Amino acid sequence: MRVVLDTNILVSGVLSPTGAAGALLDLALGGRVELVSSPILLDELEDVLGRFVQRSAAAEIRAAVEEIAQVVEPEVVPMVADDPDDDHVLAAAASGRALYIITRDRHLLTLGEYASIRILDTVPGLHAVRARLEEAQP
Fold it and tell me: Is the pTM for the entire model greater than 0.85?
């Protein structure tokens, strides 16, 4: 199952690993879900994390995420979200054929869905991912 964890989720997961965002990050790091990302999202992750941790640590975290993620370079960036900066999240999800976008961004959450990709907040996203994983169990 492919999932885009928006930058705000990844940062929360790194800074608060015991919460729902941390659980989502653990599922990705453990290979239970396939993380979809893009160069823009990875740059944003490193930049935002650099505000909270040393730049070298932010670069290491970016490299770790990049190593496990399917990194896509969308050719087309839709103009859909109320905040144009959010369109790259939608583009990455569509290019990577993600099932979910998990975010705390209100502009994306307002959409609810894009190109058959469900857009969910952290806790509902974690529940949806776990339910999918349970369905896939033999």
Answer: yes
